[in-house]
Recover the amino acids of this structure.
């Protein structure tokens, strides 16, 4: 129980923020991806609101490139906790808005899902979306407020962020604006795993070691072999013992070689690993120094 | 293991970002891929010596281009003893409001002094702001000791000068450490070059410092954040739970309490922490309260103990830090947000301003409060507020002001009289 005290502090901070969201907004939503961070958010929401129902639905923006294990897990969790789930598909947005789908060997719909997210916010008139972003993930995220106001176009303006003083959160917005609220802003990857261990939170099996067919990228990352990839004849398919540190799209989330069977194995592994979570697993952030900053300015969560 | 939140304010020139970079780097909290990126960026900037550790914290494009910190960035690291959250905040006066954001949640402030420049206007400003925000501990890091050949005499001079300056500031504890962030002296291990300094180096200091706030107020404070209605479909009954964070003191099942501002008296019939029944809830814990009677109460109402001092008021005196680009003007329509309680408010009088370079009171009869100005004001609120004196009650004596028209957070305030 060495970590108990600070995990309690982080937990209380996160639940306090969720209660502020529930107390201040008319139409909140919780963005749920099926990854460990949003699974932790659901766990925190259970602590905040049970025995009553959540004052918000879960919203999944389905890129169509998901791991089937993550989708199964999502559906099981939703039926187990008996909460409302809204799914909106990037595939439908591409058709409706006549967008150009992503291409290349490892087609990423990361930028395209912003359209679907903004359309979904419009459709349900959500005034706030709770997200599982953490400030330790990336240096543009390290700059973002806990209540982050987005303009009419969903854009984050890093130069016009409101002051956020003490733990008093100003959720008042003008018409057209909405807020992204990040209850686990101050958690690190390791905090999340310690919390998962302490609270015995269930996760999709792909977080743990398993055999998988993978393809190497030019920078030697291991991508899951799937029908979504556009491989050429030079690409070799290997079978490796891997796990995922993050669960995003199959096409742009890399696996790491691992023998970790349990949460405590994972904690040991993270403690000695020398590569950051995003550095190890996300192709999309390697493109430029400001990749995340630019996507956020365009409305990405 | 517990958590220490600290902030550092300053500019790249003071070695602030280098100091943070050094702490992260030497405590092995930086991953290899990030070091690779840094090496690449350091080269891009034409810096052929070592890594530019400042690039670790300046996360926005504009910051990297201009070589300054514009907005607060949060960094995380931990040792065997403690987990640390660093708020890396800008030092430039035009970004003071961003500094407020980072500083307001801190348990400790690190004030950096460049030994060559000595105590500057910025040192004074940051120290005064830290004391206004009620940060209990101040650590003065006297940096760039390498540039004065690690001279004890030079260090002592600055320490004495700072003590004289800070004599009248309400700080609980001030400590000093001589360091060289660039050379890594006195950061993780005691410096061989400053054997005359016998106390702990920076990291051990941060691991061991007792930062618990010394709040004198014992009054129990709880504001309702959210009312949860649970419908039991079997019995067709509704249970109402009043959920929120205990701001100070404690609450127990069976306590006689009053709901403010209406003054309804009732008894706590059940207390739950995260869905589990408990007998007692204490400061900083989130609890769900049920009452014996059916009570009409909502978000923002306070639940207070019957046997304690609980005066609400429509008038308060406060210290304000103005944070909006548009200055305050008489007649401006404001909303006062005191934790979960919001009410319309107006500033009825500007009593005096505070010169944040000298901490002196300034009486200029001005009717405006400009960006980054600090002043004492009288405020009138539409609904009565239960606010305590900031110096004795800590966080329960804090609030923000919001412009009713733009919805921007325009000021942070601490209560002096209510």
């Amino acid at each position: 129980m060495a970590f108990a005290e600070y995990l309690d502090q982080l937990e209380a901070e996160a639940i306090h923020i969720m209660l502020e969201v529930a107390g201040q907004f008319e139409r909140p939503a919780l963005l749920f991806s099926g990854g460990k961070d949003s699974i932790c958010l659901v766990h925190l929401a259970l602590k905040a609101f049970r025995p009553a129902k959540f004052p918000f639905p879960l919203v999944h923006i389905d890129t169509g490139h998901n791991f089937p294990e993550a989708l199964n897990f999502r559906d099981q969790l939703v039926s187990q906790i008996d909460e409302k789930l809204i799914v909106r598909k990037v595939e439908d947005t591409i058709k409706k808005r006549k967008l150009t789908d992503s291409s290349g060997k490892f087609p990423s719909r990361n930028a395209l899902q912003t359209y679907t997210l903004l359309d979904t916010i419009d459709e349900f008139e959500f005034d706030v979306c709770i997200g599982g972003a953490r400030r330790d993930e990336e240096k543009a995220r390290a700059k973002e407020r806990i209540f982050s106001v987005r303009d009419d176009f969903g854009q984050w303006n890093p130069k016009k962020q409101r002051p956020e003083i003490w733990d008093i959160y100003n959720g008042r917005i003008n018409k057209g604006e909405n807020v992204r609220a990040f209850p686990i802003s101050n958690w690190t990857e390791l905090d999340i795993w310690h919390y998962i261990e302490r609270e015995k939170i269930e996760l999709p099996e792909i977080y743990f070691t398993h055999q998988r067919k993978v393809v190497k990228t030019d920078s030697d990352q291991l991508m899951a072999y799937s029908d979504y990839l556009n491989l050429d004849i030079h690409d070799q398919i290997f079978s490796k013992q891997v796990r995922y540190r993050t669960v995003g799209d199959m096409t742009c989330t890399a696996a790491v070689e691992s023998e970790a069977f349990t949460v405590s194995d994972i904690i040991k592994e993270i403690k000695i690993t020398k590569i950051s979570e995003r550095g190890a697993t996300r192709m999309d952030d390697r493109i430029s120094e400001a990749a995340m900053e630019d996507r956020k300015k365009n409305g990405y969560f | 293991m517990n958590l220490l939140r600290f902030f550092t304010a300053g500019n790249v020139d003071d070695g602030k970002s280098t100091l943070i970079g050094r702490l992260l780097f030497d405590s092995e909290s930086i991953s290899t891929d990030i070091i690779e990126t840094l090496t690449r960026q350091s080269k891009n900037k034409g810096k052929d010596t070592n890594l530019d550790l400042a690039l670790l914290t300046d996360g926005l494009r504009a910051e990297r281009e201009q070589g300054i910190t514009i907005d607060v960035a949060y960094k995380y690291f931990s040792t065997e003893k403690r987990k640390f959250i660093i708020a890396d905040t800008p030092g430039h006066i035009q970004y003071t409001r961003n500094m407020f954001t980072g500083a307001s949640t801190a348990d400790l402030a690190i004030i950096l002094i460049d030994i060559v420049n000595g105590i500057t206007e910025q040192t004074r400003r940051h120290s005064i702001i830290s004391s206004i925000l009620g940060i209990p501990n101040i650590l003065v890091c006297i940096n760039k000791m390498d540039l004065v050949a690690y001279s004890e005499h030079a260090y002592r001079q600055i320490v004495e000068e700072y003590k004289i300056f800070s004599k009248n500031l309400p700080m609980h504890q001030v400590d000093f450490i001589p360091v060289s962030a660039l050379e890594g002296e006195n950061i993780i291990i005691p410096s061989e070059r400053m054997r005359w300094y016998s106390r702990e180096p920076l990291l051990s200091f941060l691991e061991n410092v007792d930062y618990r706030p010394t709040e004198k107020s014992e009054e129990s404070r709880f504001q309702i954040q959210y009312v949860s209605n649970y419908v039991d479909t079997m019995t067709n009954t509704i249970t109402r739970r009043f959920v929120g964070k205990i701001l100070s003191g404690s609450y127990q099942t069976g306590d006689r309490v009053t709901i403010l501002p209406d003054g309804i008296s009732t008894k706590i019939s059940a207390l739950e922490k995260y869905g589990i029944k408990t007998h007692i809830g204490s400061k900083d814990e989130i609890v769900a309260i049920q009452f014996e009677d059916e009570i009409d109460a909502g978000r923002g109402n306070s639940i207070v103990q019957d046997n304690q001092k609980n005066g609400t008021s429509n008038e308060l005196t406060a210290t304000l830090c103005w944070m909006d680009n548009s200055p305050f003007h008489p007649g401006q329509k404001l909303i006062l947000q005191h934790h979960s309680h919001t009410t319309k408010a107006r500033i009825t009088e500007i009593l005096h301003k505070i010169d944040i370079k000298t901490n002196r009171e300034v009486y200029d009869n001005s009717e405006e409060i400009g960006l980054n100005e600090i002043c004492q004001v009288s405020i009138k609120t539409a609904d009565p507020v239960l606010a305590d004196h900031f110096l004795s009650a800590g966080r329960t004596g804090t609030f923000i002001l919001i412009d009713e028209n733009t919805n921007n957070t325009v000021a942070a305030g601490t209560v002096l009289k209510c």
About this structure: Chain A touches chain B through 57 residues (CB under 8 Å). Residues 4-24 of chain A form the longest helix (21 residues).
